[in-house]
C-alpha cells in the first residue's frame, strides 16, 4: 500500500511518503498534480477539512480536537466554512452567508484555506473511490501522540518547537532528517515553510502506521455531511 502525507504550503502542497518502497517528497503546484497523487496513492493523511456542515458553525470533530489539544493550541484548529459559504466568490459574501445561517462570520484564517478545501472537496465529490483513501487529520494531534499524549510546550513557529517536532519524527523515521534538510535546500521559504515540512512528515508517518494499526477518529462515531463525507479527524 502506497502511503502519503499532504500539507498545504505557499506554493500548493508538500507531499511526503516515508514507506520504504515509495519514499520521497514532492511539491505539488497545480490542482492537476494533486489529483494525480490522490489517484496514485492508496492511503493519504491530509491536513484540510473534509466534510462540511450546513448550519452548525463548529464541527463536532473540531470541538473535540480543541478539547484534546488544550487551550494553548485551540487557535491551531480553524472552523471551516459551512458548505453554502465555501463557494461564495468573496470573503465578504462568505462571511455574510455564514452570519445569516450560523450567527457568526468566517474568520480570515479559515477563508484563506478555502481554496484548499474547495479543491479537495471537488475531487472527493467527483470520485467517490477517493473517499476510501483520503483522510482528514491534524498534525498537532499527531505530534501530541508522538510526545506520549502530552502537549509540546513550544509551538511549531518557534525554533524550540520546530526542533522538538523534528526530533520526534527522527525518532520514528529514518527519512525525517534527510527529507527535512533536502526539502529546505531544494525549495525556497516562499514555497515551503519549515513547519509545512514537519507537518507533512507527521501526516506521512501516521498514514504509514495506519496500514498496520487501527484508524481512530474524533469523534468516535463521526457524522457525515449532506454529501456523505465524514466529519472526522483521523489518527492511529
- Low-confidence parts, pLDDT < 50 over ≥5 residues? none
Count up the domains. Answer: 1
The CATH first-level class comes to Alpha Beta
How large a portion of the residues is in β-strands, by DSSP E?
5-15%
Specify the CATH architecture: 2-Layer Sandwich
Please provide a written account of the structure:
The protein is α/β, with parallel strands linked by helices and 236 residues long. It has 10 helices and 7 strands. The chain has helices at residues 31-40, 60-69, 83-86, 91-102, 108-112, 114-126, 139-146, 159-170, 176-186, 194-209; strands spanning 3-9, 12-17, 24-28, 43-46, 134-136, 216-218, 233-235. Helix 7 (139-146) crosses helix 10 (194-209). It is globular. The mean pLDDT is 96. It comes from Fodinibius salinus. InterPro entries: DUF429. It holds the Pfam family DUF429. This is Putative nuclease (RNAse H fold).
Can you tag this structure with a few keywords?
7 strands; two-stranded antiparallel ribbon; Nucleotidyltransferase, domain 5; 236 residues; alpha/beta; 10 helices
Quick structural summary:
With 236 residues, the chain is an alpha/beta fold. The chain contains 10 helices and 7 strands. Strands 3-2-1-4-5 form a 5-stranded mixed sheet. A two-stranded antiparallel ribbon has the order 6-7.
Fold topology:
Layout: E1 3-9, E2 12-17, E3 24-28, H1 31-40, E4 43-46, H2 60-69, H3 83-86, H4 91-102, H5 108-112, H6 114-126, E5 134-136, H7 139-146, H8 159-170, H9 176-186, H10 194-209, E6 216-218, E7 233-235
Parallel strand pairs: 1-4, 4-5
Antiparallel strand pairs: 1-2, 2-3, 6-7
Helix pairs in contact: 7-10, 8-10, 9-10
Amino acid at each position: 500500500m502506497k502511503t502519503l502525507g499532504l500539507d498545504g504550503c505557499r506554493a500548493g502542497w508538500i507531499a511526503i511518503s516515508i514507506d520504504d518502497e515509495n519514499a520521497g517528497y514532492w511539491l505539488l503546484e497545480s490542482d492537476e498534480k494533486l489529483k494525480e497523487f490522490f489517484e496514485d496513492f492508496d492511503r493519504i493523511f491530509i491536513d484540510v477539512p473534509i466534510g462540511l456542515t450546513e448550519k452548525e458553525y463548529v464541527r463536532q470533530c473540531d470541538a473535540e480536537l480543541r478539547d484534546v489539544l488544550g487551550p494553548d493550541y485551540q487557535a491551531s484548529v480553524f472552523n471551516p466554512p459551512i458548505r453554502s459559504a465555501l463557494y461564495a466568490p468573496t470573503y465578504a459574501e462568505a462571511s455574510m452567508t455564514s452570519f445569516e445561517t450560523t450567527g457568526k462570520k468566517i474568520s480570515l484564517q479559515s477563508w484563506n484555506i478555502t481554496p484548499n478545501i474547495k479543491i479537495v472537496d471537488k475531487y472527493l465529490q467527483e470520485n467517490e473511490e477517493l473517499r476510501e483513501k483520503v483522510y482528514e487529520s491534524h498534525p498537532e494531534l499527531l505530534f501530541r501522540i508522538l510526545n506520549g499524549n502530552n502537549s509540546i510546550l513550544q509551538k511549531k513557529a518557534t525554533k524550540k518547537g520546530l526542533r522538538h517536532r523534528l526530533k520526534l519524527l527522527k525518532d520514528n523515521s529514518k527519512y525525517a532528517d534527510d527529507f527535512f534538510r533536502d526539502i529546505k535546500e531544494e525549495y525556497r521559504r516562499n514555497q515551503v515553510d519549515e513547519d509545512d515540512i514537519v507537518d507533512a512528515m507527521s501526516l506521512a508517518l501516521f498514514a504509514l502506521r495506519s496500514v498496520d494499526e487501527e484508524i481512530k477518529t474524533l469523534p468516535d462515531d463521526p457524522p457525515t455531511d449532506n454529501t456523505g463525507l465524514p466529519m472526522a479527524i483521523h489518527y492511529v
